[in-house]
Amino acid sequence: MPTATPARAAIRYGASDYLHKPFDVFFIRDLIDKCLSRRRQKASAAETLVALQQMNEDLSRELAQQNISEEHTSELQS
């Protein structure tokens, strides 16, 4: 059984799990599948975040333009 310090260090450097020897090939396959799934989920979340940020910027610009237009119309009517 590994001590806590090397296990923590391994995770800090990017390990997602700790393998105990001897290990089962089927366990490793399942572990790799889980890691790949988490990586895909993180990538998807990052892409979604970028898309939402872009939409937010676009909507903010559109709203600012509408506010300017409304102010201009209000000034002309006065």
The helix count comes to 2
What Rg do the Cα atoms give? 26 Å
SSE-based structural type: mainly alpha
Low-confidence stretches: none
Distance between the termini: 80 Å
Provide the β-strand percentage band: under 5%
Output mean pLDDT: 87
Write down how many β-strands occur, each being a DSSP E stretch of 2 or more residues: 0
List the secondary-structure elements in sequence, H or E.
HH
Largest sheet: none
Q: What proportion of the residues is helical, as a percent range?
A: over 70%
| Overall spatial form | rod-shaped
Descriptive account of the structure:
With about 80 residues, the protein is mostly helical. Helix content is about 80%, strand content about 0%. It has 2 helices and no strands. The chain has helices at about 5-10, 25-75. The longest helix is centred in the middle third of the chain and has 53 residues, at about 25-75. The protein is rod-shaped.
